[in-house]
């Protein structure tokens, strides 16, 4: 019997932080993860985590304003206030747990300046910040003997009388489906980058949690807000962290000009990511690119700084392009990186389904609105991972009985058996490629009604073809063919909500830039877009943005 008070799907930073909180409160807690926890995508985060530390004269209100401006005023301001106010305390707590943040000359925690910020308030561990944080939080959960269903894959949420009561999951070692009962479930399943090709995201970022929640009746919010990172490596899209520009690297066009002087005279390369990515794309489209890219130039930083502060980037540059950053600029281009949208939650991770919570990249609180600032996502995972666990713990005490569900496990087992037994169908890889290419083309850095409708038609077509796909591997043990197929189903559901959001938002705001409607329209569109499933069909609606202290202004960098 698998039974818990708090079941956390995902063991990246949001999941681990939630688990620690729940274990410390004495709750029967478990995490479930389709990969070993330290292989979660959080481990790929390079650049850092933001916090305004008051002891050095920084002010959380300035961090909040930068975040809100970065969001193009779409973030809910009360949630941003919470995140920025709680940042310092969370950062110090991480340090005390053992995250060895890089230090400055005075021996104090060091900072670098990240995009869209007025001052340097990004704390970092060289260029391996995420990995350092992930390992420390994982150690803490090991110390507390946390239960982890490791390499288990969740296929469905159990909803009874409108409340979430656990999950159905496959033990990937045996292929067997089990029911895991819980009084509350926290989704911490990360992003959905692989809907696009290329992407900076790991192959496991397939939006599973978003689709699980959506199919259970939760709302997905602002799904059209897709972040393209300005410095994805030419070709495969591997990320070269914003830390490079934070340390002073330039962006150059084919004429050798620092073109950001024309687009963001004050912030230059450190304008918000949507602004920098659009500027790059404009240069490339105007014929001032280099083989469809622009150049990231670190040469003037000197070898010592590059190796000390940007060691991981140097490794990537050498291994994938044979480039020594101290000698040569490297070609980069805007690459899909992050989803600002996600499962709609309040500031304690509550979704519209009682007992179901969400935190981290899969959730939309919303602190990032139309555009996330670099190094605010790691912060989001920690602050809201902890808060969602606190809310779940409180809720658990009101739940008297566990699920008695029997039919759901049978239904899921039959559904998956029929997929495995199916012969003669299209391969999921074919559909996955078509999806990736169409989404990058249609919901790109620039988009318009035609491109959006092209992408949407494609996704609708793929959704029709998906039930007839077949897999070659009929085995039980680590059937990755089967997992890829199930992930494709999730990605298609999520991609459709992205297309609907993009189609409906009739303005340009943040990362959603429509060449057919280039202005931000606060009168009609200072609103969140939401998509929810009803009777098997997506329903669209809008909801209000919370404004507290900061009135929307024109955004200039
Ligand atoms: C290359 C890269 C660099 C980045 N750099 C930074 C940075 O410097 N600063 C910053 O603030 N942000 C950065 N980000 C963004 C940030 O890292 C992520 O948004 C954040 O780490 C997500 O954490 P998470 O806990 O929400 O999810 P993840 O770390 O992605 O974890 C998701 C978890 O869910 C589990 N899971 C998913 N689906 C299932 C399923 N069906 N069944 C079971 N388990 C499942 C996975 O196994 C995993 O454990 C970066 C992102 C990338 C891709």
Fraction of helical residues: 25-40%
Taking the sheet with the most strands, its summary is: 7 strands, mixed
Rg over C-alpha atoms, rounded to the nearest angstrom: 22 Å
The unique ligands bound to this protein are:
flavin-adenine dinucleotide
What oligomeric state do the depicted chains represent? single chain
Shape: globular
The end-to-end span amounts to 56 Å
| Portion in beta strands | 15-25%
Poorly predicted tracts of residues: none
Helical/strand content category: alpha/beta
Total number of strands: 19
- Average pLDDT reading: 96
Number of helices: 16
Overview of the molecule:
The chain has 557 residues and is of the alpha/beta class. It contains 16 helices and 19 strands. It has helices at 13-24, 60-70, 77-97, 129-143, 208-215, 243-246, 260-263, 273-285, 303-309, 311-321, 376-396, 407-421, 428-442, 449-465, 480-504, 522-525; strands spanning 2-9, 29-33, 49-50, 111-112, 122-123, 147-150, 152-160, 163-171, 176-187, 220-221, 226-233, 250-252, 294-297, 330-339, 342-344, 356-358, 363-364, 527-534, 537-544. Strands 1, 2, 6, 7, 8, 9 and 16 form a seven-stranded mixed beta sheet that branches. Strands 17-15-10-18-19 form a five-stranded mixed beta sheet. The chain has a four-stranded antiparallel beta sheet with strand order 11-14-13-12, covered by helices on one side. A hairpin with a 2-residue loop joins strand 7 (152-160) and strand 8 (163-171). Helix 2 crosses helix 3 and helix 13 (428-442) packs parallel to helix 15. Bound molecules: flavin-adenine dinucleotide. Flavin-adenine dinucleotide is lined by residues 9-15, 32-35, 37, 40-42, 44-49, 129-130, 153-154, 188-191, 200-201, 204, 208-209, 239, 241, 338, 360-362, 375-378, 381.
């Amino acid at each position: 019997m698998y039974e818990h008070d708090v079941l956390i799907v995902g063991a990246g930073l949001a999941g681990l932080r939630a688990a620690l909180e729940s274990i410390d409160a004495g709750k029967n807690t478990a995490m479930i993860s389709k990969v070993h926890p330290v292989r979660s995508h959080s481990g790929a985060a390079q650049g850092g985590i933001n916090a305004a530390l008051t002891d050095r004269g920084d002010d959380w209100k300035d961090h909040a304003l930068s975040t809100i401006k970065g969001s193009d005023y779409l973030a809910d301001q009360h949630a941003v206030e919470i995140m920025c106010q709680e940042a310092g305390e969370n950062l110090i707590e991480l340090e005390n747990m053992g995250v060895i943040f890089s230090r400055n000359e005075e021996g104090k925690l060091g900072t670098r300046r990240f995009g869209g910020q007025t001052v340097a308030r990004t704390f970092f561990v060289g260029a391996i910040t995420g990995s350092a944080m992930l390992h420390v939080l994982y150690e803490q959960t090991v110390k507390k003997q946390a239960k982890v269903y490791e390499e288990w894959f969740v296929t469905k949420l159990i909803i009874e009388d409108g409340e979430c009561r656990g999950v159905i999951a496959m033990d990937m070692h045996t292929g067997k489906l089990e029911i895991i009962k819980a009084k509350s479930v926290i989704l911490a399943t990360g992003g959905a980058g692989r809907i696009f090709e290329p992407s900076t995201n790991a192959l496991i970022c397939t939006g599973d949690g978003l689709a699980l929640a959506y199919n259970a009746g939760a709302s997905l919010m602002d799904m059209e807000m897709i972040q393209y990172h300005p410095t994805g490596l030419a070709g495969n899209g591997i990320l070269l962290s914003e830390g490079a520009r934070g340390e002073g690297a330039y962006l150059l066009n084919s004429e050798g000009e620092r073109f950001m002087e024309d687009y963001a005279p004050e912030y230059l390369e450190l304008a918000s990511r949507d602004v920098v990515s659009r500027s790059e794309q404009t240069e490339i489209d105007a014929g001032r690119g280099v083989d469809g890219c622009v150049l990231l130039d670190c040469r003037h930083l000197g070898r010592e700084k590059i190796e000390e502060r940007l060691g991981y980037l140097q490794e990537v540059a050498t291994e994938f392009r044979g480039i020594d950053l101290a000698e040569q600029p490297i070609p980069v281009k805007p690459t899909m990186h992050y989803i600002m949208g996600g499962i709609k939650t309040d500031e304690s991770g509550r979704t519209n389904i009682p007992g179901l919570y969400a935190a981290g990249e899969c959730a939309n609180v919303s602190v990032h609105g139309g555009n996330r600032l670099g190094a605010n996502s790691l912060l989001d995972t920690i602050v809201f991972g902890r808060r969602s666990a606190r809310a779940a713990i409180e809720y658990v005490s009101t739940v008297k009985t566990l699920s008695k569900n029997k039919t759901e496990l049978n239904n899921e087992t039959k559904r998956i058996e029929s997929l495995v037994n199916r012969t003669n169908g299209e391969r999921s890889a074919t559909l996955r490629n078509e999806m990736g290419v169409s989404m990058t083309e249609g919901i790109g850095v620039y988009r318009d009604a035609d491109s959006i409708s092209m992408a949407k038609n494609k996704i609708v077509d793929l959704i029709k073809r998906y039930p007839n796909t077949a897999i070659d591997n009929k085995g039980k043990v680590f059937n990755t063919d089967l997992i890829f197929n199930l992930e494709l189903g999730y990605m298609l559901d999520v991609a459709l909500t992205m297309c609907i959001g993009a189609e409906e938002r009739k303005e340009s705001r943040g990362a959603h830039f429509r060449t057919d409607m280039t202005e931000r329209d606060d009168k009609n569109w200072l609103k969140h877009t939401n998509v929810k499933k009803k009777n098997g069909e997506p329903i669209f609606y809008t909801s209000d943005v919370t404004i507290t202290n900061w009135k929307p202004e024109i955004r200039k960098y």
